[in-house]
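lol so apparently i was supposed to do this last week
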Amino acid sequence: MKPYNQNFQVNRVNQNLIEVFRHEPPEYLKEYIPLWNFNFWMYMETDRHFVNTLGNFLESIEQTIIDQYEPVHDSSTGLGNNTVTSRSHHYNLFRETAPVALHLHKIIKSQITRYLEQTNPKIFQDPNFDPHINCWFNVMAPGEEIKSHTHNVTNPFISGHFTVRCENSYTYYIVPYTRDRIEMTNNIGEGIIFPSYMEHGTSIHQGNANRISIAWDLYYNKDDTFDTIKNNVEPVDLK
Ligand SMILES: [Fe+2]
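anyway here it is w/ fe (ii) ion bound
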């Protein structure tokens, strides 16, 4: 992670948790400078056989999903209508029951739990916390990019990516106000969790094969979802 300048600070709390913040302005400016902080959670799935199998599985269902559902929109990613991304309101990888999908669910749930335990442990005592997830995937051909977008600024509240296949690409996140970019090189098997409001995108995919990534949004409860997606979220048992 490489900040372009000192408009924000980075604190690596532990192997997974990274705090990015701007909350220590000079005293004489503190009434005027926007202050903010957010957390990234990074993890690496080292079972390469699982990740390869997952890539094969996603490739095997891609065209079926495209044929089965009408596109809604590509969520400003620029990937267009002929993609699984633009059908993310119609299908949910958390409904897939293949063993490789079940293992993916287990990994995502476990990492969300660990992230929330470290950033907001009281959430597990809140009776209103009934998390629901929407999970989809993106396939990028060589030369394509995911344009800058957010996953909304109110609901969902946290989102994640998981890189299944990549070559020579990175994901960038744009910090509030100053719009500095935090660039993170994509690595196969790497997952990241971030607040959903964060604007992000990717570099142009420079590889020879398709780049495949998984994405998900977590909603605080089912009432917190949009009408267009209410029937496409699945409850997740996090503890
Ligand atoms: Fe995204």
